[in-house]
Amino acid sequence: MRIHFKTSYENDIRLFPDRWSFFVYAALVAGAIILPWLLDDFFLGEVTNVLIWAIAGLGLMLLTGQTGQASLGHAAFLALGCYSCIILMEHGVPFLLAFPLAGVITGIFGTLFAIPAVRLHGIYLAIATMALSILADDIIVMLAPWTDGVSGKFAPTITIFGLEIERWTTPDRFYWLVLVVTILCTLAYRNLLRAPLGRAFAAVRDSEVSATAMGVHIAFTKAAAFGLSCAITGLAGALMGFYAGAFNNETFSVVISISLLMMIVIGGLGSIHGAFFGAIIIAFLPQALSMASDTIGGLLGANNVAIPGLETGVFGAILILFIMFEPMGIYGRWLKIRTWFELFPFARKDMFKRQKSYLKTERLR
C-alpha cells in the first residue's frame, strides 16, 4: 500500500500523485505507440474506434460526470464537429487548421445553447438536449447546400506536411493521429480538473447552493462546462467522420447520444478512466456479439444466427446490472478491488457501503 506524504498544497494538484502512477501511464502510452506492429488492420481499426469513443466520452464526462448536467443531445455536437471539419477542408482549409476550428465552432454553438439551457435542471435539461439531438437530423437536411442532405458527404484524405493519412489505406497513420488527439484531450481534461474552473465544476455538481455561497457563478460555470464539453465532442465527431469515410443525416442519431450517456455511466461517472472503460465496452461489444453468434451458429450447424435487437438488449442488461449492483461503474469496481488488495487482510465489506450524497441544501432550489 502506498502512502502519500503531502508537504504542501501543491501536492493535491500534481498531474500524477506519485512516480509509480507516472510510470504506469507512461508504459500505457508506450504500449499504445507500438500497437500497430502487434495487431492486424482489423483489430487496429477497432482500437482506433475505442479511442474516438473515449474522446467523445471525455467530452460528455466533463459535462455530466464532472458538472452534473445531464445531456442526451451530444450527437448533435458530434455531427456539428464532423460537418464543420469536412466543409472547411472542402473549401481549401488544411486539416491542421480545420480540425481545431471544428472544435472551436462546436464549443461556441454549445455555449450559445447553454445560455438558455442552464436555467433547466435534471430531467428538463435532458429533454431539452434530446430535442436538440432530434432536430439535428432535420437541420442537416435543410442545410443541404452545405451538408448535401440525405446524400451525405465523403471524408477527404488527411494531409499533414505532405503525409497522407486515410482510415482504410493507412490505418496505422490514422491510429497514431487519433492517439495523439486522445492524449492531448486527456491531458487537457486532467489539467482542467486541477484548475479553479474544474473545482468550480465539481462544486456545482455537488451542491449549487453551497457553490453559490463560496462565490461560484453558477450560470457562467455551467455555460463554460457546456462549451468545453462540446468542443471536445466536436473533435471526436470530426474523427468519427474520417473513421466512417461516409456519413449523412442519419449517422449521428439520438441513439448515439443515449449510447454515449450509457457508456460513461457503465465506465464510471466523474473519472477519466470511466470514459475509456466505457468506450471499450461500447466499441467491442458489437464485435464480441458477432463472434459469439458465429460460434453458436457453427455449433448448431447454421451459417449465421441473427437475433434482432441482441446488441441493444445486451447493452441495456449490462447498464441495469451496473445501476443495481455497481453504480460507480467499472472504474468504481476497480477501485474497490484495488483497495481490498492493498488493505488485505484488514479490508472489510462495510468499507464499501454506499453513502447517501443528497444534500439538504438542494431543497432550497
UniProtKB/TrEMBL annotation:
Keywords: Cell membrane, Membrane, Transmembrane, Transmembrane helix. GO terms for molecular function: branched-chain amino acid transmembrane transporter activity. The chain crosses the membrane at residues 20-38, 44-63, 70-89, 95-115, 122-146, 174-192, 223-245, 251-269, 276-293, 305-325. Its main location: membrane. It is a multi-pass membrane protein. The keyword Cell membrane applies. GO terms for cellular component: plasma membrane. It is found in: Cell membrane. This is Branched-chain amino acid ABC transporter permease. It comes from Antarcticimicrobium sediminis.
